[in-house]
Amino acid sequence: xxxxxSAPAFVLWGAPTTWLEVVAAVLALLMVGCNMREIHWxxxxxxxxxxxxxxxxxxxxxxxxxxxxxxxxVVALWGWAQWLRGHRADGSALHVAxxxxxxxxxxxxxxxxxxxxVAFFLMRFTDSDVPWWDGFATGLSLVGQFLLGRKFIENxxxxxxxxxxxxxxxxxxxxxxxxxxxAVFAALSVAxxxxxxxxxxxxxx
Length: 205
Known about the structure:
205 residues, two-stranded antiparallel sheet, 2 strands, 73% helix
C-alpha cells in the first residue's frame, strides 16, 4: 500500500485520520447513494471501498469487520450481477420487494445464528477486545448484504441496526471519521427504506 494512504490527513479529537480512511469513506458514501437510487454502479464502488476499509479496520484491530470487507468485495460481484441480470421466481426482472413471513423468519434466524458464531470465532482465533460488538456488526452485515443484493426492502432495517452498533464500536476504537460516516449511514438507512417503499412490488418468498 502506498505510504500516502497511511499518512494522517488530519486529527479528530486527538486521533489521526489517515488518507486511507478518508478515501474509503467517500467511496462508501457514493455507494450508498447509488444503492438508494437502484444504480448498479454502487456495487463496484462497494468493492473499492471494502478493500480500503479492510486496511482501516485491520490497523484498528477490528478483525471481524476487516474480514467482512473481503467478503463484501467478493459478494459485491454477485450483487452487481443480480442487479444487472437477476430475476424473481416468476421470471420477472429483479425489483424492490418485501419479504414474505417465511423469508422474514429465515432472515431473523440467520441474524440470531450469525452474531454468536462470529463472536465465538473472534474470541477463539483473534485478540479482539470487542468480539460481541464486532460479531453483531459482522454477522448482521452478512444478512443485510444478501437482502440488498436481492432488493428486499428489509435490508435497510438490518443496516440501520448494524450502523447503530458500529457507531459505538468505532467510538471505542477512535475512528472518528468513520463514526461520522456511520452516523450518516444510519440516517441514509432510514432514507433508503423510505425511498424503496415507494417502489415496492407484491410480497415474495
